[in-house]
Amino acid sequence: MSWNDYDMEKAIDRYYGDYKRGIFGKKYTIGLFIYPSRIYGTGILFEDGKLDGVSTSYDITYMAIRKIYEEKIDGDMGIIIEYVKDSVVVRNNILKIALMGIEDRAKWIRLLEETKKTLLDKNMEAEVQKKEIEEKERLQLEEDERKASQFYLDCYNFHIDEDTPIYNLYQEKNRVALIYIAKDKSLNFLKIDGYNQEESNGVIPFEKIHYYEKAGNIHYVTDIHGTYSSYGGSVTGGSYSKLATAGGGLLFGMMGMAAGALLTYKAAKTEAVATNFQIDSDAKKIDERSVMLNFYSDLKRQYIDIELPNDCYNFLQTHLAEKRYNIVLELEKKAAVEQASGQIENRETPQISSNAPVEAISAHQGEDSMESFKQKVNKLKMLKESGILTEEEFNIEKAKLLDTI
Question: Taking 60 as the threshold, does the pLDDT of residue 264 lie above it?
Fold first, then answer.
């Protein structure tokens, strides 16, 4: 505490005066300034029953004061303040300050003792209040933990049982974000926050899932780093590095991917001595792979993609194998081919009245056959151009169509 800090406190009382040892003895300056938090002033060091030769300043907290009493020194009565002064070198160093020449010493001793007691009582009261607050906070924390745990377990057990396949995206105490497969094979995105009493569950029905597939690549970059070394001189600086970093996150604000690079260089300052410059490099792996899930959104009325962590692929492949991209693609191609073939082979014969003239029947059948043939040609062409039919499959279906002419 500085002298200005004392000015911010209101002084309880103060004494300032001189003390002279004998008629022709040395003159001392004596000061006692009493504040609520501490005392300070000037006095005389008292050691081994003797007074020091000069006045000395003191600054003592009430907690450091051990005793306050009267004592007769060289025929004169004085107030002795015994206190503990800690220093870097000496711990619990006991010193005594003599305040000589003060009249009505009992008054000042009583005032010092009362002020010290008031401060200690306040400190004790503050300590009790602090412990009460800490205990209240501890109990509140325990209650918050109990409520968070109960909310978490209630929500978790409502959605998940022992047989439910789950993939954890993020988990800590009473918080989780995960993917699970329900009994109806729907894909569920569950988030539970026990502390904030929040639960959200996004559901993609099985029939709305179109496919999932791996996306992205693995990159390798070179981490170049160099250092100077010298013999017989000194070097400062002389280092540079090229670093690439990548990070990942999760769904619900915890998923994302980022990569960046940083290039720094500091020139070296060397003495005129022998130096050596060495460059090293290491390969850094940056994995940008992820899983893309394509599904139909009733809200947006279109197919949309969402990105999942790369290692989620094995989870989906285990529990939703039929929705893997390659399988879905083959099934769609097969269905398209079967549909086209069925239309060609099983087209319906038009119903014509038996009373119609033979010429009219023949003309009508000819027109219907030509129109149907054109439609089938256009469908085969569209299937080939969209990539559903390969060149070989297209030629087979074309041959079947030509055989119907």
Answer: no
Query: In the predicted model, is pLDDT for residue 220 greater than 70?
Result: no
Closest by Cα among 113, 40, 32 to 78: 32
Q: Average pLDDT, stretch 362-373?
A: 56
CA distances to 199, 201, 294, 323 from 309, rounded to whole Å, are 22, 18, 14, 17
Q: Collapsing DSSP states into helix, strand and coil, what is residue 365?
A: helix
Average pLDDT, the chain: 78
**Count of Cβ atoms closer than 10 Å to residue 357 Cβ:** 8
Burial class (CB in 10 A: 0-12, 13-18, 19+), 298: exposed
Residue 93: the pLDDT is 86
CA 119, CA 38: separation in Å to the nearest integer?
A: 9
**292, 305 contact by CB (below 8 A):** yes
The residue assigned the tokens 């260089």 is 265
d(CA 138, CA 143): 9
Asked whether the predicted pLDDT for residue 246 surpasses 80, the reply is: no
CA distances from 170 to 167, 198, 253, 314 (A): 9, 15, 11, 17
Report the half-sphere exposure of 376 (CA within 13 A, side-chain side): 26
User: Long-range contacts: 278-282, Cβ < 8 Å, 24+?
Assistant: 278/226, 278/227, 278/228, 278/229, 279/224, 279/225, 279/226, 280/224, 280/225, 280/226, 281/222, 281/223, 281/224, 281/225, 282/222, 282/223, 282/225
Separation of alpha carbons 350 and 366, rounded Å? 11
Q: Whole-angstrom Cα distance, residue 228 to residue 151?
A: 59
Beta bridge partners of 181: 187
List all residues 6 or more positions away from 9 whose beta carbon is below 8 Å from its beta carbon.
35, 36, 37
What is the pLDDT at residue 370? 65
Rounded CA separation 148/143 (Å): 8
Answer for the pair 222, 282: CB distance below 8 angstroms, yes or no. Answer: yes
CB 181 within 8 A of CB 188: yes
The four Cα atoms 364, 370, 374, 375 give a dihedral, to 10 degrees, of 30
Query: CA triplet 53, 57, 59: central angle to 5 degrees?
Result: 145
Q: What's the sign of the alpha-carbon dihedral 258, 259, 263, 264?
A: positive
**Alpha-helical regions (H) of 160-240:** none
Write the pLDDT tens digit of every residue in 16-27. Answer: 999 988 777 788
